[in-house]
Amino acid sequence: MTSQQKADFKKKIKREALKLGVNKIGFANVERWSEFAEIAEEFYPQNIWSWSRTVISLAVQIFPPMIETTPSVVYSELYNTTNRFLDEAAYRLANFLNREGFRAHFFPRDCYGDISVLVKKPEAAFSHVIAAYYAGLGTIGMNHTLLTPEFGPRVRLVSVITDAEITPDPMLSGELCIKCGMCVKNCPMKAFTPQKGSIIADMDKHKCARYHAQLKGEFRYPCGVCTAVCPVGEDKKKYGKNSVTPQGAEHCRNFGSKNAVENT
Ligand code: SF4
Ligand code: SF4
Questions:
Q1: Atom 6, ligand 1: which residue's CA is nearest?
Q2: How far apart are CA 128 and CA 112, in angstroms?
Q3: Which residue has a Cα nearest atom 2 of ligand 2?
Q4: Which residues surround ligand 2 with Cβ inside 6 Å?
Q5: Pocket of ligand 2, candidates 129, 148, 177: which has the most ligand atoms within 8 Å of its Cβ, to mutate?
Q6: Nearest ligand (C-alpha, residue 180)
Q7: How far is the centre of ligand 1, averaged over its atoms, from the C-alpha of 252 (Å)?
């Protein structure tokens, strides 16, 4: 492909993804995994799918008035919807790339069988956060999530892997995390320990997973407090600091979950 054909094809992919309803899309060449060497090599896309050349990262927003009710069935429903939405969008985009003559598939957005697995082994075979970071969608915050300028960490991610060689997007320079510590302070499990010399806190993923297992049993999974409280993102300006009143959040928690029934 000439450079003009490459640029036109990239625009076509972006148009296709935006038509599917995603909020953000970015492109990372697989060499970025080895260039930055921040995670174990077994997680590099090129070591899992040797033919892969580009990872396309897709993000959809999480609405603040819904996540700010967490833990609640309101947020739980939103979470489940984003999962279906992301997998469907990624499936369709991979199909589109196939029709254009390229190899492509997607890595599903969560990819674990049950929360009981995460309690014992809290990691997935592929990191969408790292992919989105290398694709220029945002930077990684103290709370281990991807922070974006538009939605802070209130995004859900999925990745499409392809052998199409697409010009990568520039990664964001600087850090979006302002190190305010709100995520650390508000975590109900005290799972974060800030580290000297690194913006990313040490995280006890087992503690976080255990809490999620409890919430799942109560039909109000996941937690997401560290995502809800983060002040970064234009969405916080749009909805205001508290997009749901404290009594409104409590009201939502009092309906729909097992916990709500038991507290009646
Ligand atoms: S999801 Fe909840 S329990 Fe897990 S780290 Fe974030 S605030 Fe803590
Ligand atoms: S809450 Fe504050 S410290 Fe935590 S990720 Fe957001 S900006 Fe960083």
A1: 226
A2: 14
A3: 180
A4: 141-143, 177-183, 229-230, 232
A5: 177
A6: 2
A7: 20
Tens of pLDDT along the chain (264 residues) come to: 888 999 999 999 999 999 999 999 999 999 999 999 999 999 999 999 999 999 999 999 999 999 999 999 999 999 999 999 999 999 999 999 999 999 999 999 888 888 888 989 999 999 999 999 999 999 999 999 999 999 999 999 999 999 999 999 999 999 999 999 999 999 999 999 999 999 999 999 999 999 999 999 998 999 999 999 999 999 999 999 889 999 999 999 999 988 887 766
CA atoms of 106 and 172, how far apart (whole Å): 24
Residue 74 counted as domain residue:
yes
- 116 CA distance to ligand 1 centroid (A)? 16
Q: What pTM does this model have?
A: 0.95
Instruction: Please indicate, yes or no, if residue 145 is contained in any of the structural domains.
Output: yes
Question: What domain range includes position 22?
Answer: 3-255
Q: Is residue 262 part of a domain?
A: no
Residue 261 domain flag? no
Q: Is the CB of 189 under 6 A from ligand 1?
A: yes
Instruction: Please tell me the total count of domains within the chain.
Output: 1
CA distances from 195 to 38, 139, 176, 183, 201 (A): 17, 17, 17, 14, 5
Secondary structure letter of residue 44 according to DSSP: S
Q: Give the residue from 54, 3, 5 showing the smallest Cα distance to 33.
A: 54
Alpha carbon distance 202, 30 (integer Å): 26
Concatenate the DSSP letters of all residues of 145-168 into one string: SEEBTTTBT-EEEEEEEES---PP
Nearest CA, atom 4, ligand 2: 183
